[in-house]
Specification:
Blueprint: H1 2-9, H2 12-19, H3 24-27, E1 40-46, E2 63-71, E3 78-79, H4 82-96, E4 103-109, H5 115-121, H6 125-142, E5 146-150, H7 157-181, E6 187-192, E7 197-198, E8 206-207, H8 210-216, E9 219-222, H9 250-260, E10 268-272, E11 274-280, E12 292-295, E13 302-304, H10 305-314, E14 318-322, E15 327-332, E16 335-339, H11 342-354, E17 359-363, H12 372-381
Parallel strand pairs: 1-2, 1-17, 2-4, 4-5, 5-6, 6-9, 10-17
Antiparallel strand pairs: 2-3, 7-8, 11-12, 11-13, 11-16, 14-15, 15-16
Helix pairs in contact: 6-7, 7-8, 11-12
Domain GH18: 39-383
Family: Belongs to the glycosyl hydrolase 18 family. Chitinase class V subfamily.
Signal peptide: 1-22
């Protein structure tokens, strides 16, 4: 009854988004997907990772991002550190002759980067131009196929508006450079908040510049993870697909992006290859939402997928699949871990396909166990 009332008020688009909640729809084998051309199966490669770029199994990927390079906080030129000097050539050369081929993108920023410096850079035409020129210079010098911005996060409406101008000028500069150099235009992408409006962190409500994203980016990549972590004093999922009690879910986030006017074909959905681990207040109270007292010992609160498998095995952990959230958790003693495994990743990728998205990406290559999840995701995508 309540649902009927809602349906009348909502646009057809939202009805589609809502109806996905009955899982059966997008899991049905009768569902015919649109052709899969130009789709994206991507992963970030954190520089210096144990995994050598040359050993990335590119069967499962179309694009790999180098993560991360930083801008200088005053000059706004990209800074190539000693470590970048070592890793960028290994990255490019390691992936240059791989089969099947992948495209490489240089990602600027990341979670630990200086958000204020992005804000200042984006404010004036001159500083944007210095930054843009530097990104093109570095990308061409090393042979990248594209550029990616991971600004976490624009802090207010002014930042969001300047971000839109940055995208426009950046795109124009890339088009011009391609004409002059007679090379294919560098791709331009951005990692963005899981939802189109940032609510929960920083300075109040601010929405992404949707029109600029549509016009000037090849795609935007909502980071559909980090929903709950040890900053909460209760256990929860890192990346629930659904949450009946809140808007902190991938279903809500992707729906908000499409609802804001960004075509599904411009969205590449984030998937985590890591979980988050709490120390339980009471080992006998170990469900979702159980009281917790900070990070599980010996981790900073995150555990890579391959490490979680080892933890579960060594500690004979209880593993639970939450069908409603489409996520896993495991616990042993006072340690509680919320994470994703093959079946939840598969359902999320099916969701991305059903929604008509351009693709998905992982944070990060090197956290998988023998490409198990990467393979299952690729299969679910229907590659
Ligand atoms: C971040 O950038 C701002 C603006 O340029 C600068 O004032 C500040 O010192 C930087 N912070 C760090 C930690 O480098
Ligand atoms: C940026 O590059 C363009 C094209 O090469 C050039 O005309 C312009 O002067 C450069 N701007 C700055 C601030 O370096
Ligand atoms: C957790 O946080 C909530 C809200 O801030 C508070 O009411 C509750 O007492 C806290 N619990 C613990 C165990 O700290
Ligand atoms: C979720 O988002 C919708 C639409 O943006 C809003 O109306 C609703 O109040 C939100 N729900 C919660 C629990 O925040």
């Amino acid at each position: 009854m309540a649902l009927q009332t809602l349906m009348i008020k909502l646009t057809p688009l939202l009805i589609l988004v809502m109806s996905v909640h009955s899982h059966a729809i997008f899991e049905s084998s009768n569902w015919k997907y649109a052709p899969n051309k130009g789709s994206v199966r991507a992963a970030y490669w954190p520089s210096g990772d144990d995994l050598a770029p040359s050993s990335i199994d590119t069967k499962y990927f179309t694009h790999i991002y180098y993560a991360f390079i930083q801008q200088h906080p005053q000059s706004f030129n990209l800074v190539i550190t000693e470590s970048d000097k070592k890793w960028i050539p290994q990255f490019i050369n390691g992936l240059r002759y791989c089969y099947p081929p992948v495209k490489t993108l240089l990602s600027i920023g990341g979670g630990g980067s200086n958000s204020t410096a992005f804000s200042i850079m984006a404010t004036t035409k001159h500083t944007r131009e210095v930054f843009i020129n530097s990104t093109i210079h570095v990308a061409r010098r090393y042979g990248f196929d594209g550029l990616d911005l991971d600004w976490e996060f624009p802090n207010d409406e002014i930042d969001m508006s300047n971000l839109g101008i940055l995208f426009q000028e950046w795109h124009q500069a890339l088009v011009l450079e391609a004409k002059i150099s007679k090379k294919p235009r560098l791709l331009l992408t951005a990692a963005v908040y899981y939802a189109s409006t940032i609510k929960l962190i920083g300075n109040g409500l601010r929405s992404y510049p949707v029109q600029a994203i549509c016009n000037y980016l090849d795609w935007a990549s909502p980071m559909c993870f980090d929903y709950h972590g040890t900053w909460d004093n209760f256990t929860g999922f890192n990346a629930a697909l659904y949450d009946p009690n809140s808007n902190i879910s991938t279903h809500y986030g992707i729906g908000s992006w499409i609802g804001s006017g960004v075509p599904a074909q411009k969205l590449v959905m984030g998937l985590p290859l890591y979980g988050r681990a709490w120390k339980l207040q009471d080992p006998n109270v170990n469900g979702v939402g159980a009281e917790a007292v900070g990070e599980a010992t010996d981790t900073d609160g995150t555990l890579d997928y391959d490490e979680i498998l080892v933890f579960n095995k060594e500690n004979d952990a209880t593993v639970v699949y939450d069908d409603e959230a489409v996520a896993f958790y495991s616990y042993a003693g006072t340690t509680w871990i919320g994470y994703d495994d093959g079946p939840s990743i598969t359902k999320k990728v099916q969701f991305a396909r059903f929604m008509g998205l351009k693709g998905y990406f992982f944070w990060a290559a090197g956290k998988d166990k023998d490409w198990t999840i990467s393979r299952q995701a690729s299969n679910a995508w229907g590659h």
